[in-house]
Amino acid sequence: MISSQVGRFYTEQIAFTAKKRVIGFWDLRRLDQIVSNLLTNAIKYGHKKPIEITLDQDGNFAVIEVIDHGEGIAPENFDKIFKRFERVPNDISVGGIGLGLYIVKQIVEATGGSINVKSKKGEGSTFTVRIPLSS
Ligand SMILES: Nc1ncnc2c1ncn2[C@@H]1O[C@H](COP(=O)(O)OP(=O)(O)OP(=O)(O)O)[C@@H](O)[C@H]1O
Ligand SMILES: [Mg+2]
């Protein structure tokens, strides 16, 4: 369990759970970009609530989930948030250029993987990334 701070935002609980031992071959810088963008968002929009990161395997894919219990995203914005320079109204006043999720989506799709979001306004968000074990 670790805590983390992004600018004036922080969370006291980040739990990482590896549901399986997952062995893969990835570009570590790209993997880092994926996880840090999602984690930064979870901290920024997570309203100081605990964050979970899980790792699992589904066939030939590694599955990474970043789960927060913060402000959530309205369903009509699920597609928009992955577009370049797109931001949506937030509960808190927070800066950003709207590139983070666009970059994550580009990287994930370049590996042959996918990213999707499940969220309920006011209850939090789960971002699920699936990347091939070898890419
Ligand atoms: N975990 C989350 N909870 C709620 N809203 C989120 C979450 N992650 C992203 N969003 C929404 O999606 C929008 C796009 O996110 P994205 O990471 O692309 O940009 P950003 O965080 O605004 O800026 P940056 O380019 O610095 O990452 C955000 O402005 C925010 O409204
Ligand atoms: Mg971001």
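^ magnesium ion complex. Helices lie at 28-45, 100-110. The domain at 11-132 is CATH 3.30.565.10 (Heat Shock Protein 90).
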